[in-house]
Recover the amino acids of this structure.
């Protein structure tokens, strides 16, 4: 079964791409991250709500504050990456809906007047966007090191004091360094992951 | 800023791809979905846990049961798609961890003995995988119509009676039909979605 996507792109994004655990010193620029964003921003979210927010942790001081919330080896790994980003869901994403989803101006008030609804939808859709973003990092020729081993409640207090952002993923980004990759672990077979009804 | 990914692939996956609202009659085969899966299965999840499960809704009877849980226009849309899939998180994904993450055989018991931990991590990582899967559908030259407007608690009872699956997204898949696409809505600018600290 052949795909429409060419083999080189398949390898770049999926087949040969792997989570990087070490990085070279080569800087990752704002322009590179903007190019990633400007590619993946088109991928779908509910009502085009686009709740993902990206915090680029650039200053030494911010990086040191971030790693106080890391678990295990994630702290040292983060300190050696040329760029680390915090991904969060904007719990006030609904404020942008009249502009982002002009086809249905009622959506903002009909579905998202309650914070709990914004938190559920915002987190779900920002997480979908995180999937697109990881693919986009690879599309830029960079390696990603996504980490869920952080105290995200701590990160929210540290960086988003107003309670309007709910962080859920930290990603190291850069060119892979020495011994960056662990051996590829097995994946589930299609017949284990898929069922027909 | 140029990306490593070639422009044709950028267009196929992101820049020209759009959510489809109508489809042709052309069937979507199991082989096509397997090709999508076998591409995107390599993208990262926490501890390689790979909690996403895909239910292909093929029989007329299953399709009719599914749409009883649809909101608004999603029911009629689903009935005209050549294939609809339910994406869910397997809450027992941890049972596979000793095989999927052999580097750390203790992970299963250390982190996932509690159902609440499996539900949080399983849902988050299955949602990341849903993002990869939507990209993969486009990589196969197909259009996706992802829908969150379903009663997922109802779907879980209807299709996953044992309580071991938590559904969160339904996706129509096929070749786009007549007037399949709405006009592209605006996206947030990079400076609106990204901040530097």
């Amino acid at each position: 079964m052949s795909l429409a996507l060419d083999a080189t792109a398949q390898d770049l994004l999926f087949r040969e791409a792997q989570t990087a655990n070490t990085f070279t010193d080569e800087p990752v620029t704002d322009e590179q991250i903007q190019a990633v964003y400007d590619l993946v921003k088109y991928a779908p979210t509910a009502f085009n709500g686009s709740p993902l927010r990206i915090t680029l942790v650039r200053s030494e001081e911010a990086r040191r504050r971030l790693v106080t919330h890391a678990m295990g080896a994630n702290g040292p790994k983060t300190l050696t990456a040329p760029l680390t980003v915090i991904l969060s869901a904007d719990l006030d994403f609904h404020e942008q809906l009249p502009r982002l989803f002009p086809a249905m101006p009622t959506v903002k008030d009909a579905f998202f007047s309650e914070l709990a609804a914004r938190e559920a939808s915002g987190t779900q859709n920002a997480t979908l966007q995180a999937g697109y973003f990881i693919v986009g990092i690879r599309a830029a020729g960079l390696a990603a090191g996504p980490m869920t081993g952080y105290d995200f409640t701590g990160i929210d207090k540290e960086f988003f004091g107003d309670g309007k952002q709910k962080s859920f993923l930290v990603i190291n980004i850069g060119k892979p360094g020495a011994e960056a990759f662990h051996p590829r672990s097995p994946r589930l077979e299609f017949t284990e992951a898929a069922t027909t009804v």
Remarks:
- The domain at 26-176 of chain A is CATH 3.40.109.10 (NADH Oxidase).
